[in-house]
Design a protein that fits this description.
- The structure is a homodimer of 138-residue chains.
- Chain A is mainly alpha-helical and 138 residues long.
- The first copy, chain A, folds into two domains: 58 residues, Arc Repressor Mutant, subunit A (Orthogonal Bundle), CATH 1.10.10; 61 residues, Winged helix-like DNA-binding domain superfamily/Winged helix DNA-binding domain (Arc Repressor Mutant, subunit A, Orthogonal Bundle).
- In chain A, strands 1-3-2 form a three-stranded antiparallel β-sheet.
- In chain A, helix 4 packs across helix 5.
- At the A-B interface, helix 4, helix 5 and helix 6 of A face helix 4, helix 5 and helix 6 of B.
- Chain A binds a DNA duplex (30 and 30 nucleotides) through helix 1 and helix 3.
DNA sequence: TCATACATTAGTATCACACTAATGTTATTA
DNA sequence: TAATAACATTAGTGTGATACTAATGTATGA
């Protein structure tokens, strides 16, 4: 399915989250490392980066890649959804590992607004099952 | 993202649900009508049908299309997830229309097992917000 | 300076999605 | 019955995402 404008693919999602979680604040991440994290070859990772650049979510030069402000916002939003859904699943009886895997399949599709409402319904937990904080604002 | 084996795309999902909901019991649906429901041209609908056939989910001859046993099971499973997630969203305060739209974006991705556990957590409602029954067994 | 590590480009391939144009088939109707 | 309308089907094109190999460029450290 062709992505609608502003929509991201699973790979792009994985790349955003990798950058968000593995690159120290304001420090670029090497293309090579991104490729390793995504378990693809560097040219493949590069093409993902190029798509993120087109969408204004990342910037790169000489294999040094950083998220833009916009990219960070999107990543945060995905993490909000991810951790909320993960918490819901765990509260429902799904194992932590399954919950994490399954959450990654939908966290870039579910609207953040829906996640915020679900979060309230399940009792406003402050952290996901792994203990990571659930982002507050956008 | 290439679909893993046994995985279906959004279009295939829409097509399965269309067949499940619009074709009378054991009666085939016309390709033309499927195209209208999916809001695509007949050749496009045909290519979707062909993919479903390859996966053993549908059969067709001369534009007469029916779900296989397997296709019906998959459709039922998607509806279970759809209505469960829809119920969750509505209980959380999402409008009925948004809930339905948003549920269709993820109901073919979320595992039925997860949905069954969520269903229990939200109080085992018997119907979705539209009043349609939530399928029991698989 | 030379080697190595890495980025980048070029070229190929597959799959999902979607279209138009052309052609077949069938069934109704004038 | 012959013509037409309705629909299915095939062929051909195009785009975007994903992924690879092979070739080439570049820069840094030994």
């Amino acid at each position: 399915m062709k992505n609608r404008p502003n929509e991201i693919s699973k790979r792009e999602r994985d790349c955003l989250i990798t950058l968000e979680e593995e690159s120290p604040r304001d420090f670029p991440m090497r293309l090579h490392q991104i490729a390793v994290s995504l378990k693809v070859k560097p040219p493949t990772a590069l093409s993902v980066i190029r798509r993120l650049e087109k969408k204004g979510l990342a910037e790169s030069r000489d294999g040094m890649v950083i998220l833009t402000e916009s990219g960070m916002r999107v990543a945060k939003s995905i993490l909000l959804v991810h951790r909320t859904y993960e918490a819901l699943l765990c509260q429902s009886g799904v194992s932590e590992n399954s919950a994490c895997y399954d959450a990654a399949e939908v966290d870039y599709i579910i609207p953040a607004d829906d996640a915020r409402l679900i979060l309230k319904k399940i009792g406003n937990p402050k952290v996901c099952p792994h203990g990571k904080p659930i982002p507050e604002e956008e």
